[in-house]
Write a structure and sequence with these properties.
By secondary structure, the chain is mainly alpha-helical. The chain is built from seven helices and no strands. The chain has one domain. The longest helix is centred in the C-terminal third of the chain and has 29 residues. The termini are far apart. The mean pLDDT is about 90.
Length: about 220
């Protein structure tokens, strides 16, 4: 009887353990943070692209900030937190870094136009250069780090990198034509973001993912 009782107790413990595991799996959060992150990213990109190509004058540099702060920066931050709760470290990293980029861009524009940071007038251009060079380094790092992901992700980040380099050149040289080219590149990476969103939306609504291309690096 003792052997039977012990066996029964072990079986009950095993069953309880499996039940607890099943409950944990059922309780795990689900979803796709890109359903928020990508539209917010696209909105800010389109607004910035329009500013760069001259849709508003250079004197109205703050025109895109309402979208960039309230939609893009905040939306990407929410998406990053959502991705982190799902254990999607790479996704959380990308969304979190881009939230930092957009919010710091807004702060830079507001700070320079309202003289918050004590930057001398003669150093305003180089202050913008400092900002751009710092983010060129970070986005370049992200581009290389995503080379094991489907090519569409690497393409998006590579276009962001090219746009930042062009904005840096246009800013340091005071060239409106280079800035317009940068704006066109911004529209290109916004278009890649739209494609990625359609892929995520297709899966979220019961369809198949769109082709995203093979990774640059395998293994």
């Amino acid at each position: 009887m003792t052997t039977i009782d012990a066996g029964t107790e072990t079986s009950q413990r095993t069953s309880a353990h499996h039940a607890a595991e099943a409950e944990a799996v059922a309780a795990a959060p689900v979803g796709d943070p890109s359903m928020i992150g990508l539209p917010c990213f696209i909105a800010g990109s389109v607004a910035l692209g329009l500013a760069l190509v001259g849709y508003v004058s250079a004197a109205s540099v703050g025109a895109p900030l309402a979208i960039i702060v309230a939609a893009t920066g905040l939306g990407l931050l929410i998406a990053a937190i959502w991705a982190a709760t799902l254990g999607q470290s790479a996704v959380a990293s990308v969304f979190g870094v881009f939230a930092g980029f957009w919010l710091s861009y807004a702060l830079l524009v507001l700070g320079l136009t309202h003289s918050w940071f004590g930057v001398a007038t003669a150093d305003v251009v180089h202050a913008q250069g400092l900002f751009l060079i710092s983010w060129i380094v970070v986005i370049g790092m992200l581009t290389l780090a995503t080379m094991r992901l489907p090519m569409a992700y690497t393409l998006l980040l590579a276009l962001v990198e090219v746009a930042l380099i062009l904005v840096l050149i246009g800013t340091l040289q005071g060239s409106a034509s280079v800035l317009k080219i940068a704006g066109i590149v911004v529209f290109l990476f916004a278009a890649v973001g739209v494609y990625l969103f359609f892929s995520s939306a297709s899966q979220a609504t019961g369809g198949d993912a769109l082709p995203l291309g093979p990774p640059v690096i395998h293994g």
